[in-house]
Amino acid sequence: MCQLTAPFWESRILQAKLSKFDADYLAFVPDGGEDRAVVVGFSNGGVDYIRLPESYADVAVDGPIEIPMSRAEPNRARFYQHPGELVVSLSYADGQLVSFTSTGTVAFFDLSTWSSPETTSLNVARGWNALLSPYDNFAAFGTASLTPLVVHALTPTGISESPISVPFSLARDDFMPSRTAVYGLAAAPPDAPWGSPESTLLSGWYDGFVHVHDLREPSPRPALSFCDPWQFEPVYSVAGAGTHIAAGAARHSVVALWDARSPRSPGFSVHAPGNDPSPVYSLVLEDGRLFGATQGRVFALDFGPGVNKGTYPPFQLPAGKKKSGRVGYPVTIYGHEKGLK
Question: Is 10 exposed, middle or buried (0-12, 13-18, 19+ CB in 10 A)?
Answer without folding.
Answer: middle
